[in-house]
Amino acid sequence: MSSEQQLASLFKAVEGIDQLLILPHNDPDPDAVAGAVALSRLLSAKTALHPIIAYAGMIGRSENKALVNYLDQPLAQLNDLVLPPAVPVALIDTQPEMGNNTVPAGSPVVVVIDHHPWREASALAPLADVRVDIGSTSTILTEYYQASGLEPDQKLATALFYGIKTDTLGLTRGTALADIDAFFYLRPRIDVDCLLEIERAQVPLGYFKSFDAALRAARIYDHRIVISYIGAMTYPDLAAELADVLLRLEGTEWVVCMGHYGQELILAVRTTRPAGGAGLLAQSVVGKQGSAGGHGTMAGGHILLWGRNPKATAARVARLVLKYLDLAPDLKGQPLV
């Protein structure tokens, strides 16, 4: 369907609804935040709805905090809300039964807007706009704005631009023509100075301590695979941040970075292989212990610890990673530093 048809389906999906809860995935990233805010403002402008945006988990990465502060848009912690029973839900950058969202019990999912691999449960939503061939949910929302005749203001344009930029790594990863078109539609409308402030947001001292731990714990296998367990993390996104850094090591094809937060072992998977496969690797090693998913070159997962030792669990995952990549599970890695 065209964006105009999808937009019409969106308005029909929320017709007759008194309240709508917009939920990005847990621990939302810039693409999820921008998409949620864009949908809220679009519906507020074109319908009688004034949706609530909420999220589960936390916004811990400094850049993501800076983006939320810049948008000046209320994003509530889901646990802090008192919601009406069975409030309808719009999922942004995630899908039903994906394992990385927290839909309130009894709430129907009426809208799904995402670009990750299709989940069958999404078919139950009146609007399921899932485009696996594009690189960013922000691209879809940008197209909605264009189809509606609305002009995103400078702050929203900056957020959508940043969402596309981060998810596609500056249009170099998993990028479609639609992403490029949206990117250059938004470019003249953004606040460049504020974007730079967001991208260069200062980080806490704990980030550098974790960075040091990640480097010291990292092991190199077969000259192309890096696995690191960084221990306790101050926020869930830290594993992904450090995985991105480790992927820059010369000759590296795969990175798996792990850490624990609360009662979960969190892993981030990255690959430089053109064929991708990060999502499949994450799903394979996590299995039924938790949830996992992602794109061809980047993925993540959560394993419920249930009181188990996180370091021992990470070591077990590392063996599964090596086995998946056709190496001996007991292969000894070489220290990175």
Structural class designation: alpha/beta
* Radius of gyration, taken over Cα atoms and rounded to an integer in Å: 20 Å
What is the domain tally? Answer: 2
* Assembly state (oligomeric): single chain
Q: Which CATH-level-2 architecture of the largest domain? A: Alpha-Beta Complex
Name the CATH superfamily classification of the largest domain. Answer: inorganic pyrophosphatase (n-terminal core)
Sum this structure up briefly.
This protein is an alpha/beta fold and about 325 residues long. It has helices at about 5-15, 30-45, 60-70, 135-150, 155-165, 175-185, 190-200, 205-215, 240-245, 280-285, 310-325, and strands spanning about 20-25, 50-55, 75, 90, 110-115, 125-130, 220, 225-230, 255-260, 265-270, 290-295, 300-305, 335. Helix 1 (about 5-15) crosses helix 4 and helix 10 packs across helix 11.
Structure description:
The protein folds into 2 domains: 3-199, inorganic pyrophosphatase (n-terminal core); 206-329, Diaminopimelate Epimerase, Chain A, domain 1, CATH 3.10.310.40. Helices cover 38% and strands 19% of the residues. It contains 11 helices and 13 strands. It has a 7-stranded mixed β-sheet with strand order 11-12-10-9-8-7-13, with helices on both faces. Strands 3-2-1-4-5-6 form a 6-stranded parallel β-sheet. Helix 10 (278-286) packs across helix 11. The radius of gyration is 20 Å and the shape is globular. The termini are far apart.
